[in-house]
């Protein structure tokens, strides 16, 4: 009997993997090379997976662009001690096309800032239009340029609707340990390759009829195993 249950479980897992199979990919990515920040209010993705509803763009809310070559550079961050999720951030939104779903796994980013930029930084995402947020632990960017990507490996999330990501820089203490200033900057900076990457998959939503067939198949396997067990 136990062996039958094990076989059924293995078959179910295999079928589910086949139904939802989609090659791991970078769902959306940005390369800020050649971007000077004030040129555009937004920065369209330089690459995106197939079957997204639209090409995502980086944008700013209550922060301003300020000149810095090869970066998405912003100023007028929140220089108080309290994070406000609704002001002073950069963001992008990703959504699947009709009939598809996102499985989001992690976010990679290359960031630094000026000495007077606020020293507390966080990414977060929302699947319900900003009512609730899944937050990365606060971190501290450096003044020095970085040479590799940092990674936020959050618990995988599946979504059939839009998901918004926001980045906040805030705090009374600046990057260099002094006092934050209103003209302090924080930026997505350029490294070799892409500078901001959302990882995961985009796959077709399993049809209810397919899931029903899987369920019937598992029930059949369990019944067959039970009959064999009762005869032995």
Main beta sheet: strand number and arrangement? 6 strands, antiparallel
Total domain count: 1
Number of strands: 16
- What is the succession of H and E elements? HEEEEEEEEEEEEEEEEH
How would you sum up the global shape?
globular
Q: How large is the share of residues in beta strands? A: 35-45%
Distance between the termini: 10 Å
On the 0 to 100 scale, the average pLDDT is 86
CATH topology: Jelly Rolls
**Class by SSE composition:** alpha+beta
Just name the CATH architecture. Sandwich
What's the CATH class label?
Mainly Beta
Q: What is the share of helical residues?
A: 10-25%
**Rg, alpha carbons:** 23 Å
Number of helices: 2
Low-confidence stretches: 4-22, 210-214
How do you describe this structure in short?
The protein has 232 residues and is α+β, with helices and mostly antiparallel strands. It has helices spanning 2-20, 208-231; strands at residues 25-30, 43-44, 47-48, 57-61, 64-65, 71-75, 89-94, 100-109, 111-113, 118-126, 134-135, 150-152, 157-159, 163-174, 186-189, 196-204. It is built from two helices and 16 strands.
Task: Describe this entry's structure for a reader.
The protein is α+β, with helices and mostly antiparallel strands and about 230 residues long. It has one domain (about 25-205): Jelly Rolls. Helix content is about 20%, strand content about 35%. The protein is built from two helices and 16 strands. The chain has helices spanning about 1-20, 210-230; strands at about 25-30, 45, 45-50, 55-60, 65, 70-75, 90-95, 100-110, 110-115, 120-125, 135, 150, 155-160, 165-175, 185-190, 195-205. The strands form three sheets. Strands 1, 3, 8, 12, 13 and 16 form a six-stranded antiparallel sheet that branches. Helix 1 (about 1-20) packs antiparallel against helix 2. The longest helix has 24 residues, at about 210-230. The termini are close together.
């Amino acid at each position: 009997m136990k062996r039958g249950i094990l076989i059924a479980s293995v078959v179910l897992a295999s079928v589910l993997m086949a139904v939802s199979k989609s090659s791991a990919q970078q769902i959306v990515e940005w390369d800020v090379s050649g971007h000077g920040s004030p040129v555009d209010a937004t920065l369209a993705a330089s690459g995106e997976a197939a079957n997204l509803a639209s090409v995502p763009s980086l944008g700013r809310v209550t922060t301003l662009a300020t000149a810095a070559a090869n970066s998405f550079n912003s100023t007028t961050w929140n220089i108080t001690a309290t994070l406000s999720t609704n002001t002073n951030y950069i963001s992008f939104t990703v959504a699947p096309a009709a009939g598809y779903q996102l499985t989001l796994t992690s976010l990679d980013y290359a960031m630094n800032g000026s000495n007077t930029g606020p020293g507390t930084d966080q990414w977060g995402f929302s699947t319900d239009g900003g009512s609730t947020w899944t937050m990365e632990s606060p971190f501290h960017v450096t003044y020095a340029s970085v040479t590799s990507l940092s990674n936020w490996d959050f618990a995988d999330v599946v979504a059939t609707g839009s998901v918004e990501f926001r980045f906040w820089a805030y705090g009374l203490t600046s990057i260099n340990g002094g006092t934050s200033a209103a003209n302090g900057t924080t930026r997505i900076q350029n490294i070799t390759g892409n500078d901001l990457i959302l990882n995961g998959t985009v796959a077709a939503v399993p049809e209810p009829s397919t899931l029903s067939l899987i369920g019937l198949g598992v029930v059949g396997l369990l019944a067959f195993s039970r009959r064999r067990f009762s005869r032995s």
